Amino acid sequence: MTDRIYYTDQKLLELIKTEFDFVDDKGWFELYQHKQDKTFWRLDKWDKYQTQFFVRLETIDNWESFDDSELRVELLKKTKGIDLKRKCIWNNCENLSLQGLVYCEKHAYFEMGIRK
Hints:
By secondary structure, the chain is an alpha+beta fold. It contains three helices and seven strands. The protein is elongated, with a radius of gyration of 16 Å. The mean pLDDT is 96.
């Protein structure tokens, strides 16, 4: 796993079961450690109204309060792609919009609640 953040799907959940050890559970998150490289990862607990993410942590200090929103925005941008012909329609925004949307990645994520 080379990226710092992934959308969680059934295939990833199966991988977590086999290649990671459960470490801790706090609030809305679970902490795992990769069996091979010993990296720590945070899994969002499942919620039918939220997109679930799996995030590699740089440190386990305050792991449950780590702000991964910028990683989520970058994943949204990577997944959707940029529309090189259209600017974001948010007032005074000069960024290009995401493919299939009229908003840039930041306005799509933070203002419109788009996660995937």
